[in-house]
Amino acid sequence: MMKSPFSNEERAAILKQVEDGTPVRKVCCEHNISNVTYYRWRRNARIAETPKSFDTGIPAAETKEKAPRQSKRSSAIGKPKNAVTAAPAEAAA
Hints:
This protein is mostly helical. It is 42% helix and 0% strand.
């Protein structure tokens, strides 16, 4: 993989220009980078700033527990909709 011609400090300065209100397109043209490169740098900078969970090393936003989802149809699986239960054999005789 080829080494980037921009240091981390230069990348941070480019990102700061956009934060200060300069349009992304203008900053990218000025520094001869694609807008895809700019947005990749921005994403990587945000990931680097995300606090990690102490135990797992997973970003804190991903460690929230989700409530288990229950299907509305889970109790009806295997049962026909209009099933008629058979009467006991003793009642028929």
